[in-house]
Amino acid sequence: MRNRPSLFTKLLRKLRGNPRPKPVRTRPAKVMPSLEPLEGRIAPATVINATTVIFSDVDGDIVTVKFSKPLFDAATDVGKLGAANAVLKFSTGTVDTVAKTFTPSATGQQLQLIDLTAGRIVNNVNVAIGTTVTVSVVKSKTNTSADGFTNVGYIHAFEPVNGNTPAKEVPLGAVTIAGDLGQIDAGGLNTRVGLVSLKVKSLGVADPATTQPTVSGTLPSSRTTISNISGALGTVTIADDLRGTLKAQNGTSVFGTMGNVTIGGSLKGGATEDSGSLISDRDFGVIKIGNLLEEGILGGTGKNSGTIRAGGGFPGKIASLTVSGDIAAGNGPGSGVVSAKSSIGAVKIGRDINAAAAGATVGAGAGGLSSQGTIASVTVVGALRGGESAVTGFITSGADLGAVKVASIAGGKGTNSGSISAGGKLASLTVTGGVIAGAGLGSASITSGADLDLVGDIGAIKIGGKLEGGALQNSGTISSGGKIASVTIGPAKAVTDSLLKGGGGLFSGSIFSRGAMGTVKISGNVEGGAGDFSGAIVSRDYITSDFELPGTLGAVTIVGTVKGGGGGDSGEIRADGKITSVTLGVTGATTDGLAAGAGARSGSIRAGQGIVDPGVTGAIKINGNVANAGGGAQGGAIFSEGKIASVTITKALTGGTISSGDDIGAITVGGDVSNAKISARGQALQTKSDLAIGKINITGNVSLTSIRAGYDTQFITGVNPDAQIGAVAVKGSWTASDLVAGVIDGGANGFGTMADDVKITGFDNGAIVSQIASIVIGGAVTGTIPGVSSTDHFGFVAQKIGSLKIAGLVVPLTAAGGDKVELATTGDTPTNDVTALEVAIA
User: Which residue, among 700, 698, 615, 613, has the nearest Cα to 658 in the 3D structure?
Assistant: First the structure.
């Protein structure tokens, strides 16, 4: 029978390229049919040929080290061994056999060093330049500790200039290691490609104290896991974790770039600075990290650990980034961060950007994504979570930021924790869940136009849960340095949910634009807090030295109550220009649709507050009540410095204000009006008339209310003697209230007294007479306020009153005007405190 060659013999034949020997007849004998019986006889390291060495590693695996260049070519075996021992350093033993000479050994070796700077010199050129390095493994079948992988401590192929000593430069081809590589230095100061490619099982995971040689003068950077490539580094493939540092550095005349990087495990930081990091002085290609949700970019306790950095003092970009799990902060400052000096392409994160897990000791500036230029887009399947230190859990671009999609945003205790910021535009923002501020200043904030030299428009904003501010300024805030295309928040889980909710901080839980804001739809309540402008929706004018753009609001629909808080302007809908329309509450609601708090102007709608032409505000409809139970000055109010098309309140108006700096098309109230103020100045451009309020229709009673035409929005000064009011209809009673057009109470003793009710001074168009077209009061008219002296007085006053009907009875008025009719009586006796009065036209 034939002897079967062992697996090792087959491997030798393949490596040496020898032809298969002819079969030899032998007598029957006990033979070794496979590799197992030979393993104990393999020498510490064996030179197979000019390019190849085989050895047994510390756990019994058979390891082949192969170069593409003839590093060990020599005239004698002694020469080959000398060349091999100059390049390869082991923990124990040397390369001491050649070809088929074996020395039995029961112990394995750790390959600590491949020193390619010590390669053979031929014609003054290192033969190792451009060589590929392949370290492959055959797993032992008899040694139970064998794992099929091996550790290589250090590949030394570059050493920069050191004083008067010239640089040692060996740019390499492809390097492939079937196991962990602790460190690799390669390249040249003037060589464009320092390393063609790197493929390893892991990088910097094994302890360099056991895998690398001791520090010496010839190896200044050994016993670390910091790898330096001078010049370009091509593709990088790491099957498991990267826990060391891999750098592509600029040389004297070459750029340090890194091509596509694929890491099957995690980029994992440790206790030392820059551990678990990819660093390029210039650009990166496509980067992919991890295969499982547990794998990602993980910061450690060391400064800047678990990071990717493009552009070290130079422009640098990342083509794109995909992470299967988290980008997570560690306790080290700047840990768990991806950053670029120029730009970052599309980013996809399979789980969270998380700075909360590191706890109270999270490092500042940790756990985030940052580009000094643009970021094409960011998709985070999980949450953006801020931490307890400043600027943690963040997405930041120095220029435009593309579409951002994230499941939820949670701020922390740190300033600007859990935040998104664009120096220029933010293409769009989609948050599946909520945006909830933490205790930190600016936490859970979204900002565009942070660079004042850039226009910071924001596209469509969609938030599926709450936008909620905190105790400090700008927390839970969306702030645009330019326009906002649209805002959608909700739906609410319950009708009582406040989906836009302010806190104690200025602008907390608010939406703010510097320029036009498009449609706004919130499917829940809006609630202000203790901070000024908290829980507010605000569009401000965009004014520069070159142009002025009014801050306008599109159609605003809030399916719930807008409620002010203790802060001024809290729970406010406000535009420096016009508002297209406003609809609040639910059809058929009996609760408040607009309600003030204790803060001035809280729970209000205000348009035309800027200095650019305010334009025309459209229809305003409040389903439910408008109330100022909180007592804030001008709270529970509807204001516009321009025209308002119409105001409809389906229930009561209590303690609120409706006021226009121009005219109001129509006012309709479906319930009582009490303790209210209603005013309009008049039309922006007079025609044959000057109808300040087109018509008024009130279903309930009117009490302790003043309705004035020809007055400014501060409700203090009469400014238009030509102001008119159309038809007025009140189904209920009229108590201690005024209805006047174009006149003032000169004596301040109440309207309806002929002695001092006079026409408003100022520009007077002689062709227009201030008038009230008609008045119909369904119930009784009374004047005295309970608890107030009988000297109070009220009136229906204008230069002309077209007609007057009270409780079904027509009050006769002469066609020529100048009438004075006492309207309130006790029995048949006039009380002399409510008068219909026509002020003399002449």
Answer: 698
b/e string for 788-824 if b means 16 or more Cβ within 10 A?
A: eeeeebbbbbbbbbeebebeeeebebeeebebbbbbb
Q: What is the DSSP string of 470-493?
A: -SSTTTT-EEESS-EEEEEE---S
What share of the chain in percent tops pLDDT 70? 90
Which residues lie closer than 8 Å to 598 by C-beta, 6 or more apart?
564, 565, 566, 630, 631, 632
Classify residue 154 by its DSSP letter. E
For 543, the enclosing helix (H) or strand (E) is: strand 542-543
Paired with 230 in beta bridges are 187, 249
**CA–CA dist 233, 278 (Å, integer):** 12
**Residue among 37, 153, 20 nearest 102 (CA):** 37
Phi-psi region of 787 (alpha: psi -120 to 50; beta: other; left: phi over 0): left
Decide if 6 contacts 32 (C-beta within 8 A). yes
Sequence-ordered list of residues with C-beta below 8 angstroms from that of 132, at least 6 positions apart, any chain: 67, 68, 172, 173, 174, 175, 176, 196
* 7 SS3 class: helix
Q: pLDDT (tens digit, 9 = 90+) per residue, 197-208?
A: 999 999 999 999
Query: pLDDT tens digits for 744-781?
Result: 997 778 898 877 889 999 889 989 999 999 999 999 99
Round to whole Å and give the CA distance between 140 and 61.
5
CB neighbours of residue 16 within 10 Å? 12
Where is pLDDT greater, at 671 or 41?
A: 671
Report the predicted TM-score, pTM, of the whole model to 2 decimal places: 0.90
- Partners of residue 338 on adjacent β-strands: 308, 369
- Dist CA 506 CA 16 (whole Å): 78
Rounded distance between C-alpha atoms, residue 211 and residue 213, angstroms: 7
Distinct helix (H) and strand (E) counts, the chain: 3, 81
CB atoms within 10 A of CB 25: 7
pLDDT single digits (tens) 369-388? 999 999 999 999 999 999 99
Q: Are 484 and 452 in contact (CB under 8 A)?
A: no
Find where tokens 């083509």 sit: 319
pLDDT in tens, 494-542: 888 999 999 999 999 999 999 999 999 999 999 999 999 999 999 999 8
Give the integer Cα–Cα distance in Å for 770 and 468: 48
CA within 13 Å, CB half, 499:
26
Rounded to an integer, what distance in angstroms lies between the CA atom of residue 739 and that of residue 747? Answer: 17
Contact 306, 340 (CB under 8 A): no
Taking a C-beta distance cutoff of 8 angstroms, is the pair 537, 500 a contact? yes
User: Cα-Cα-Cα-Cα dihedral of 763, 765, 766, 771, to 10°?
Assistant: -100
Q: What is the CA radius of gyration of the chain?
A: 41
For the stretch 760-774, what's the b/e string if a residue is b when 16 or more beta carbons lie within 10 angstroms of its beta carbon?
Answer: beeeeeeebbbbbbb
Provide the residue type at 621 as one letter: K
Residue type, 206: A
For residue 86, what is the enclosing H or E element? helix 77-87
Q: Minimal CA–CA distance to 482: which of 539, 555, 524, 404?
A: 539
Per-position b or e across 115-152, b if 16+ CB within 10 A of its CB: bbbbbbeeeeebbbbebbbbbebbebeebeebeebbbb
- Answer yes or no: is pLDDT of 9 > 70: no
Q: Which residues contact 537 (CB under 8 A, 6 or more apart)?
A: 487, 500, 510, 511, 517, 520, 526, 553, 556, 572, 573, 574
